[in-house]
Amino acid sequence: MKKKKFTIAVTGLNAIDSPGPGVPVIRALRESKHFDVRIIGLSYEALEPGIYMHDLVDKTYQIPFPSSGIDSLLTRLKYINDIEKIDLIIPNFDAELFSFIKLVDTLEKKMKIKVFVPTIEQFEERHKVNLEAFGKKHKIKVPYSRTIFSTAEIPALKDQFTYPLVVKGKFYDASVAYTPEQAANYFNKITAKWGLPIIIQQFVHGQEVNVTAIGDGNGNTIGAVPMRKTYITDKGKAWAGISIADDKLMSMTKKMIKSSKWRGGLELEIIKTAEEDYYLLEINPRFPAWVYLAVGCGQNHPEALVRMAMGEEVKPFKKYDIGKMFIRYAYDMIVELKEFEKISTLGEL
Amino acid sequence: MPGSKIIFNGPDKTETDLKLAIENNSLIHIDHLDELYLIKELAVEMNKKPRVAIRVNMDTGVYPIWDRFGFNYENGQAWDAINKIMLNDKMELVGLHSHIGTFMLSPNAYGIAASKLSDLALGIKKKYKKNIQYLDLGGGFASKNTLKGSYLQGVDTSPTFDQYAEAISTAILNAGFVEDELPLLLLESGRSLIDEAGSLLGTVISNKRLSDGRRATIMDFGVNILFTSFWYDHKISPAQDFSQYTEDAVLYGPLCMNIDVIRENVTLPPLKRDDHVVVHTVGAYNMTQWMQFIAMRPAVVMIDMNEKAHVIRNRETLDSIESAEVMPEYLKKFKL
Amino acid sequence: MNIKKNIALSDSGFVFDPSSGDSFSTNPIGLEIIKLLQNGKSADDIKKHITGAYMTDGDSFEKDFYDFVNMLQKLKIADGAEKK
Ligand SMILES: Cc1ncc(COP(=O)(O)O)c(C=O)c1O
């Protein structure tokens, strides 16, 4: 039987030292047994490596940064869609998800482009600032946290927290502070970059574990693979990791997906304490950059996402290989200046 | 406007003000205990029963809490003030009021405020068998402007009125009022009502290259007129045909101070001297806060529903400034 | 003022400096001016050419030309400021 061919647009082509998930997602799609793909890359900057990986990406278009607003994104997507007739878009950046979620209706109804993303409520309630309420609602342990707006609030933190504590930015960045002086120092550093507020989170001692998963939007976990990082870069990103067996972690993941009816890919960052308590640190509302490990373990999550988006019924994966490792590597492509010129001046390659 | 339709609010109410308000049967929203006791005294003195509400502040999950206004809910101050009014019988407690902040991006915060005010109203009903006539949830609803430092555009992220309405009405309907005793809901929306109605028209004075190579464009309006450029990245568009090529630029006002910056970084087609621009969404908190400094303030024009323009405030002249000035006698004879 | 040797231009307005590896993009008029400068035309020649070919007066051209050349110098596409 001849496989169907879908045109799929993918963002997050920044396969750099702090990588976006686009390239691994595309690899996963190209390995699908159910369908063939034509991949349209959507890039923000001319140096995103995925733009130049022609065996993975068929054609790339620049799109406007999320900060320029939904309207300009839509205008650009209309232009691209007129040429490419896109079947599905897979957004892979936290910062762009808001815009794509807001555009779901327009894209699906007017432009016939599928988008399989969380609802705006799911997206908002898992936000760092709201994570504690999220934990209460879905009965998941979350480290005690508070939002602060000024360093003047730091001295009083000792009444509610025990040092060390984690100082976190609204979107990115987190540092562990052992003293109020350090906390104030990180407060200033992080606000200078990401603005207010700052989230203060109780530091929980233990081992960090991560889960990449996908929910069908009805409460079912279609797939989930837990991993422990075995080596991290100085930016705190996984360089190598290994799939692990952990029933408690799996049931926590399933519980969270069930009660939130999560739709789409996600990554959970969790701390496992010496007492075997699990604390949820963060929920990333998209596939992680290490999602290809799931494929290696026998669960092709991006493929499942495409099939669900296309209206197929997808049965949950029953198992995954334990003890499979991923090891990331750097690779220098040789690129002609002509190609860089084209994407920088014409916005297409 | 009849006095009985006016809500009198704020921390600074003089005795004369309060007398006038009581005389005219205005609604007085009490901010602090000193005011409460003063009204009590005046009520006896004037032999009238003033209609009052108290302003309540509370934790709505949005920080900082505006706890400098009114009486706090969580620590019992608000309930205490209510009891002082109810037990004394010199004033009539007709409403409860909160104004939780301004440019509130969280509809949920209004839900919490509505629940807490409802809780107080039901407490009054239970203890004193009295129905509170209205809940006044104040203003603070966000307009479509983009706050400085926010990554996404305000047009995309500010909640809609449907979202605010959903949060408030759900909270009140679920609070436990008997159906025909539901209080009237008052809102005091300021910014959200008027912000999108105003635009500022301005003109380019000059272009420059800064020492670091950035393009700078100097406009004929600055923070003296566009006070809100301290808070917002205002949307600015050229008012004539422009090319598709753009360049990043800093937009400066015409004042003699370094703080006079309209946009730190904006992408615009290159503008020439005398080109015009439109600054969008400037209807709120500009004409009320602009200052007379270096340049005269411009005229304000209203465009009516039939697209007809009316001048509703004249451009300032030297006389607008001088008319309020008084020259001491001994200086009048001073020879230049 | 001279455009640096071996600056590469393409029709899309892409400007490449092989000695530094930097690249920039410019609009069609910018491209035309760089080409004229490359061919050794003086500021006066260029002014004559541009004011003749496009709807612009001498003063406006001068302002924009001065700004553009400043940028070229800043970006090290052209030689530094003229020596006294
Ligand atoms: C008591 C009260 N109500 C309403 C408003 C209007 O607020 P906004 O313009 O944020 O809607 C204000 C503004 O300061 C206020 O103090």
Architecture overview:
The complex is a heterotrimer of chains A (349), B (336) and C (84). Chain A has 10 helices and 15 strands. Chain A is of the alpha/beta class and 349 residues long. Among the domains of chain A are: 4-116 and 332-345, 3-Layer(aba) Sandwich (Rossmann fold), CATH 3.40.50.20; 144-202, Dna Ligase, domain 1 (2-Layer Sandwich). In chain A, the strands form 3 sheets. Chain A has a 6-stranded antiparallel beta sheet with strand order 14-13-10-11-12-15. Chain A has a 5-stranded parallel beta sheet with strand order 3-2-1-4-5, with helices on both faces. Chain A has a 4-stranded antiparallel beta sheet with strand order 6-9-7-8, with helices on one face. Chain A is globular and about 60 Å long. Chain A starts with a strand and ends with a helix. The mean pLDDT of chain A is 93. In chain B, helix 4 packs parallel to helix 6. The radius of gyration of chain B is 25 Å and the shape is globular. In chain B, 26% of the residues lie in helices and 21% in strands. Chain C has one domain (2-78). Chain C is built from 3 helices and 3 strands; from the N terminus they run E-E-E-H-H-H. Chain C has helices at 28-38, 43-53, 58-74, and strands spanning 8-9, 14-17, 22-25. A 3-stranded antiparallel beta sheet of chain C has the order 1-2-3, with no helix packed on it. In chain C, a hairpin with a 4-residue loop joins strand 1 and strand 2 (14-17). In chain C, helix 2 (43-53) crosses helix 3. The longest helix of chain C is centred in the C-terminal third of the chain and has 17 residues, at 58-74. The model of chain C has no long low-confidence stretch (mean pLDDT 87). Chains in contact: A-B, A-C, B-C. Pyridoxal-5'-phosphate binds next to helix 7 of chain B. Residues 9, 99, 102, 138-141, 188-192 of chain B line the site of pyridoxal-5'-phosphate.
